[in-house]
Amino acid sequence: MKCLFIINPVSGTKVIQKNLDRIIGTLILDTDVSTVDIFYTQKKNDAMNKAASLKLGDYDFVVSVGGDGTVNEVLMGLINSKSAIPVALIPAGTVNDFANYLKLPTTPDAFAQMIKDFKTIKADVGQEAHSDICFANVLSGGMFSDIAFQVTKELKNTFGPLAYYVTGIKELPAQLAMNLHLKVTADNEYFEEDASLFLITNSSSVGGFRDITPYADVSDGKLDLFIIKKCNVADLINLLKDYRFQIHTKNPMIRYTQASHIKIECDQDIVYDIDGEKGEGFPIEVNCLAGLIDLIVPKD
Ligand SMILES: Nc1ncnc2c1ncn2[C@@H]1O[C@H](COP(=O)(O)OP(=O)(O)OP(=O)(O)O)[C@@H](O)[C@H]1O
Q: Where does the record place the DAGKc domain (predicted)?
């Protein structure tokens, strides 16, 4: 087998990148892989353009090495390439929500085993219709959603995921003041809600919060809409307590639904986050592009 590693050399704390020799060595020794080509990204969109240039038969599979931003670029590139080449992910970012959701291997041996088993699933991708920007994991708006844009690379490389929480807590009063009047159409359902935060997720892991949208499934042809209604500090603390016991979806501050098409209208002018990219302007209209990616996942 022949594979291509697309590597973001500066993602996360760079620990994984330093161990790539072992990962590739184990792959060559323990599996049918005989050729490993390597492409290092140098800037934004390199991973996407490289993946987009591939044709059916160029490789048996592609490996994305990086954080959620790199995963997003590789998946988008592969979709544009129409090459149908399967993709495996090696989580090397700060948070790695998508990889955590998929419970991907973290050791060279386990990664090689996953390639030997070569189990693939047809994974969905979300796409914002006005900008055409896709997301593997999440589109989020409101409270805490612009924190990612305030956290510097240096802070992330030094503190890892903590960088997000430290910045988030510092900003808490301003974040809690946020009140978005949302007009939502989710497939055939329409409702209005005053909200502090909304998430449209493909996987169940967002911002390091595992199972925040516990019913999300990357291959169900649906996206999960999770809204935290306009809340105060006490509401937020209660919600976090409920989250610890995984009963947060029953909290009255939450509105949760699943749909393949979600439209959100809002009069406020806010920046929202699409897998780490900045999105701007309402309405947001998101479609679930069902089963577009062949994703290599662990057998069990
Ligand atoms: N060689 C490079 N130097 C600087 N930036 C790069 C390079 N290659 C890619 N990038 C940028 O890094 C972004 C993706 O970073 P990625 O999400 O993979 O890592 P991270 O930010 O460390 O992780 P996380 O998203 O989990 O915080 C890309 O979208 C691109 O803009």
A: 1-131
DSSP letter at 209 equals: B
Residue-wise pLDDT for 191-248, tens only, equals 999 999 999 999 999 888 899 999 999 999 999 999 999 988 889 889 889 999 999 9
CA of 179 to the centre of ligand 1 (A): 31
Reduced to 3 states (helix: H, G, I; strand: E, B; else coil), residue 70 is helix
Pocket flag, ligand 1, residue 73 (CB < 6 Å): yes
Domains delineated in the chain = 2-117 (3.40.50.10330), 134-290 (2.60.200.40)
Task: With beta carbons less than 8 A apart as the criterion, state whether 68 and 137 touch.
Answer: yes
Q: How far is the CA of 246 from the centre of ligand 1 (A)?
A: 31
Whether ipTM tops 0.85, in short, is: yes
What atom of ligand 1 comes closest to residue 157's alpha carbon? 22
Chain segment 84-105, per-residue pLDDT in tens = 999 999 999 888 889 999 999 9
**Cβ of 96 below 6 Å from ligand 1:** yes
Please tell me if the CB atom of residue 289 comes closer than 6 angstroms to any atom of ligand 1. Answer: no
